[in-house]
Amino acid sequence: MLFCHSFIGKGSLVVPPRDCKKNMSIVEEHKENFNKAIDHLKHEITGLRTGRATPAIVEDVSVEAYGTRQPMKAVASITVQDAKTIAIEPWDKGLVQAIETAIRSSDLGMNPINDGRLVRINLPELTQERRQELIKVLHKKLEEARVSVRKIREEVRENVQAMEKNKEISEDEKFKLQDSLEEVVKEYNDKIRMIGEEKETEVNTI
């Protein structure tokens, strides 16, 4: 258990100041930032197209609508009809052509089918070359997530060191907080690794 100290002369008195709990939970408080890094990674790699149909493939494609550019998910309903087919139905039927154009001009490499009411996309089989390209992109996204975790780690370490310098915690407490931080960092790096392994398996098999 950690204690916060009030220093009196050369000695110290253990007291429970109002911000003691805050000091003890500094690592826990930053878990939200670690979670955001993981959520961002999941969002980024969901958009990596494999052979499986998923709304994430097209939901962020930019569509020209009402004089501005908006993400697909803001102007249409996106559904998966089967393992290889995505259907996009705009709320405003007047945007069907704009949606088709947006998909054709994107870097997805897909040929949408416009039936006048909705747009369908049939996902082609992935070539081995394309799978390798996707894995390279995946590895880049994973490294970006690890960098984010390292940045958060350094921020917490700096906060802990400042707390010791300001006599808010003792040296022993600093070391305990740093050990706790390293455990959390390992936990989130393990999550990144597992997410990457799962996605790489998906890319290579679907």
Key terms:
single chain; alpha+beta; Topoisomerase I, Chain A, domain 4; Gyrase A, domain 2; 4-stranded antiparallel beta sheet; two-stranded antiparallel ribbon; 7 helices; 8 strands; disordered N terminus
Provide a compact summary of the structure.
The protein is α+β, with helices and mostly antiparallel strands and 206 residues long. It has helices at residues 20-24, 26-29, 31-46, 72-75, 96-105, 128-165, 171-205, and strands spanning 5-8, 11-14, 62-65, 68-71, 76-82, 85-90, 113-114, 119-122.
Which residues sit in consecutive blocks of at least 5 with pLDDT less than 50? Answer: 1-22
What percentage of amino acids are in beta strands?
15-25%
Number of domains: 2
Largest beta sheet: strand ordering: 5-6-8-7
Which bin fits the share of residues in helices?
A: 40-55%
Please, could you describe this protein's structure?
With 206 residues, the chain is α+β, with helices and mostly antiparallel strands. It folds into two domains: 5-43 and 128-205, Orthogonal Bundle (Topoisomerase I, Chain A, domain 4); 53-122, Gyrase A, domain 2 (2-Layer Sandwich). Helices cover 54% and strands 17% of the residues. Strands 5-6-8-7 form a four-stranded antiparallel β-sheet. A two-stranded antiparallel sheet has the order 1-2. The protein has a two-stranded antiparallel ribbon with strand order 3-4. A hairpin with a 2-residue loop joins strand 1 (5-8) and strand 2. Helix 3 (31-46) runs parallel beside helix 7. The two termini are 49 Å apart.
